[in-house]
UniProtKB/TrEMBL annotation:
One Pfam family it belongs to: Glyoxalase
Organism: Streptomyces blastmyceticus
Boundaries of every VOC domain copy: 2-124
Protein name per Swiss-Prot or TrEMBL: VOC domain-containing protein
InterPro entries associated with the record: Glyas_Bleomycin-R_OHBP_Dase (IPR029068), Glyas_Fos-R_dOase_dom (IPR004360), VOC_core (IPR037523)
Top-level lineage group: Bacteria
Lineage of source species: Bacteria, Bacillati, Actinomycetota, Actinomycetes, Kitasatosporales
Length: 127
């Protein structure tokens, strides 16, 4: 697996619940290391790195500068999929839909995860 240039690591309230949520959406979760007490997980989508999730308390211990930062984010993440229509149809009953829009000819399906992170699904581009 080729590591990305930037790897998001999201603080979450319950790592296992977040992993379960994303697995229902077609992601695969891997442990990030060999420490059984460390709940950092790597999430893959289509066999490629997508993001990491880490319990908020552990993330705050790891980086004390985040100690007062709430879970969730101001902003959004995008997930490019091979078949937009099929993927959105499959996940729609599993998520809280935030917005559906067509912008410059591209359709985007926004939903929130368990901790309020916003994910925008769009068709993967070939160029």
């Amino acid at each position: 697996m080729k590591p990305p240039a930037i790897a998001p690591c999201l603080g979450v309230t319950d790592t296992q619940a977040t992993v379960d949520f994303y697995e229902k959406l077609g992601f695969t979760a891997l442990p990030a290391g060999n420490d059984p007490d460390d709940d950092l997980r790597i999430l893959l989508f289509g066999g490629e790195f997508a993001l990491m999730v880490y319990r908020d308390a552990h993330l705050r211990d790891w980086l004390p500068v985040l100690k007062d930062t709430p879970v969730g984010a101001f902003g959004m993440f995008y997930l490019a999929v091979d078949d937009f229509d099929a993927y959105v149809e499959r996940i729609r009953p599993l998520v809280t839909v935030t917005k559906e829009v067509e912008h410059h000819g591209d359709r985007i399906f926004y939903f929130t995860d368990l901790d309020g992170y916003v994910i925008g699904v769009n068709q993967k581009r070939t160029r």
